[in-house]
Structures are given as structure tokens and as C-alpha cells.
Amino acid sequence: xxxxxxxxxxxxxxxxxxxxxxxxxxxxxxxxxxxxxxxxxxxxxxxxxxxxxxxxxxxxxxxxx
Length: 65
Hints:
Strand order of the largest sheet: 1-2
CATH superfamily: Photosystem II 12 kDa extrinsic protein
Order of helices and strands: EHHHE
Number of strands: 2
Oligomer: single chain
Distance between the termini: 18 Å
Radius of gyration: 10 Å
């Protein structure tokens, strides 16, 4: 079982290892993190364009904060 990826520490390349996250979405996550400091809950990822509830559920399985 692969280690979970830390959404607050991962760079674009690392975020792309999460199924459903491509380069564009990974870049948006990194940019959101830079603007608003760190994510403190997975729900905040819903503020990133392109992440809905289904995608968030997949991300939660592969990621940590």
C-alpha cells in the first residue's frame, strides 16, 4: 500500500500521483495553498475548481493533510 500524499507538502508532480489529479488540477491545488496557507480540512479542497464531492472522496483515500 503506497504512502499517502500530504496535500500541504506535495509539489505538482507528487500530487499527480493521486488518481484523478492531472497537471492542471495539481497546479490549482498548489496555487490555492500558496494563497490561503495550508488546507486544514479536506472540505476546503472543494474550493479548488475541478474538485467535486466524487473526486474529493478519491483524494481522501490517497492523501493526508
